[in-house]
Amino acid sequence: MKYLIVILYILIQNDIMSQDMSTMLNEAEQPVREYTKSTFKSTRVINTHSIETLGNRTLDFRITHHFGNLNTDDVLQSFFGLDYANIRLGLEYSYNGRCMIGIGRTKIDGLTDAFIKTRLLRQTTDNKMPVSLTWMSGVYYVTSKYYLGITDFKLTNRLQYAHQVIIARKFSEKFSLQVAPMLLYYNLVQMYSDDNHKFAILGASRLKITKRTAVTLEYNLQASKFSSNNGISYHNSAGIGFDIETGGHVFQLFFTNSTGIAETQFVNYTQVDIFKGNILIGFNISRVFKV
Question: Is residue 124 classed as helix, strand or coil in its secondary structure?
Answer without folding.
Answer: strand
